[in-house]
């Protein structure tokens, strides 16, 4: 059986970390790197909220004079999103993704192995992000930035700084402020007094041309997987500031259930990286050990919430969410984790080949022609 990774040391703030959990992975990132700001070719926004949520990203695109790509579904529509961007004179591509040809994206083994089961993730976030990558590659863009529709960038020039760092890094994320961007379990840990940090992610993430051949698996923490190479974390940095808008992570227990497999896999892999080990050490024996640690951590957080959070409905919802996560965790077998990583590596190769094929086929075409050739149901407006 694999030896247990070393545990984190107490933090300068005086809080001792959990014996069952790594509360921060930020030491894996390069901080305070300097670069000459660079131009942003496009801001890509997967959106499912009402159009008003897009006002900030429209302003960002106007500031950087770049293309705004809006990947719309549910309560967002390409028609309404285009109208908003057009009023600001922004070049915009808006796509109703539910109507996009399925053949645009390859079939992923990681998706197929979970489809229809307890661990199936029934959201369209990852397919939207992958569609954005494919469009960026086919359009010949060099630097793009993902921004979520519930995130604000108080200093728009931070995106230019992040783009400038892409000459040296695979991904450059803005530091997340505002409401912390964590899983349900980690939110509860922080609120009960635990030492919990955040990591970079697609809430505000700049990526360059060479990174378009990585992909977002359809699982929670898909952005962490995007930043991984075959053996470890690709060179990644953090700069600037993004503000996450508040939301209720405990609104229902389903959120905790659907996050648990992705949170286990990502935390388990990054736990290896924290201690200088590689992804190849994620064997069945390692996962057996880690899953036990995770269960003990969830039980620990339940106890912390019981001891520190004031009585009331909010406390009961936190406990219910944690118990839901713990119940889902008990269904995760070590071999499932091994098999998922095997499928993920195969998907990386399939996606790389798919992107290179699409890139070569559509090289040099104008954006309007490209959108037509890809048969994307879209609305396009040039910059005014």
Judging from the principal axes of the Cα atoms, what is the shape?
Answer: globular
The percent of residues in helical segments reads 40-55%
Q: Please, how many helices?
A: 12
Which runs of at least 5 residues are low in confidence (pLDDT < 50)? 1-14
SSE arrangement, N to C: EEHEHEHHEEHEHEHEHHHHHE
- The end-to-end span amounts to 62 Å
What is the strand content? 5-15%
Number of strands: 10
Q: What characterizes the major β-sheet?
A: 10 strands, mixed
Mean pLDDT: 94
Q: Could you please describe the fold and organization of this structure?
A:
The protein has 384 residues and is an alpha/beta fold. The protein is built from twelve helices and ten strands. Strands 1, 2, 3, 4, 5, 6, 7, 8, 9 and 10 form a ten-stranded mixed sheet that branches. Helix 4 runs parallel beside helix 11 and helix 6 packs across helix 9. The longest helix has 29 residues. It is globular and about 60 Å long. The N terminus is likely disordered.
């Amino acid at each position: 059986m694999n030896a247990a990774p070393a545990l984190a040391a107490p933090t300068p703030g005086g809080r001792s970390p959990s014996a069952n959990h790594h509360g921060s992975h930020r030491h894996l990132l390069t901080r305070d790197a300097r670069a000459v700001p660079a131009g942003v070719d496009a801001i890509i926004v997967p959106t499912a909220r009402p159009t008003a949520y897009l006002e900030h990203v429209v302003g960002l695109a106007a500031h950087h004079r770049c293309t705004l790509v809006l990947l719309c579904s549910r309560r967002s529509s390409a028609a309404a999103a285009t109208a908003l961007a057009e009023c600001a004179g922004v070049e915009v591509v808006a796509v109703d993704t539910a109507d996009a040809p399925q053949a645009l994206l390859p079939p992923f083994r990681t998706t197929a192995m979970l489809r229809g089961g307890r661990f199936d993730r029934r959201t369209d976030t990852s397919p939207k992000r992958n569609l954005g990558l494919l469009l960026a590659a086919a359009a010949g863009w060099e630097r793009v930035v993902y921004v979520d529709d519930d995130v604000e960038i108080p200093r728009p020039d931070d995106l230019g700084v992040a783009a400038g760092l892409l000459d040296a890094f695979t991904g450059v994320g803005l530091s997340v402020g505002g409401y912390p961007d964590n899983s349900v379990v980690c939110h509860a840990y922080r609120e009960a007094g635990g030492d919990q940090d955040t990591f970079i992610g697609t809430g505000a993430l700049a990526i360059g041309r060479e990174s378009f051949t990585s992909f977002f698996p359809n699982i929670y923490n898909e952005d962490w997987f995007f930043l991984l190479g075959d053996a470890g974390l690709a060179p990644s940095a953090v700069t600037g500031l993004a503000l996450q808008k508040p939301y209720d992570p405990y609104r229902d227990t389903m959120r905790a259930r659907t996050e648990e497999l992705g949170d286990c896999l990502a935390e388990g892999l990054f736990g290896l990286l924290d201690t200088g080990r590689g992804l190849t050490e994620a064997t069945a024996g390692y996962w057996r050990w880690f899953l036990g640690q995770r269960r003990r951590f969830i039980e620990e957080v339940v106890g912390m919430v019981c001891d520190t959070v004031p009585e009331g409905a909010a406390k009961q919802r936190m406990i219910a969410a944690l118990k839901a996560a713990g119940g889902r965790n008990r269904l995760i077998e070590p071999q499932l984790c091994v098999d998922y990583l095997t499928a993920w590596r195969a998907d990386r190769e399939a996606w790389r080949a798919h992107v290179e094929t699409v890139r070569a086929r559509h090289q040099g075409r104008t954006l309007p022609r490209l959108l037509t050739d890809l048969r994307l149901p879209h609305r396009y407006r040039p910059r005014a």
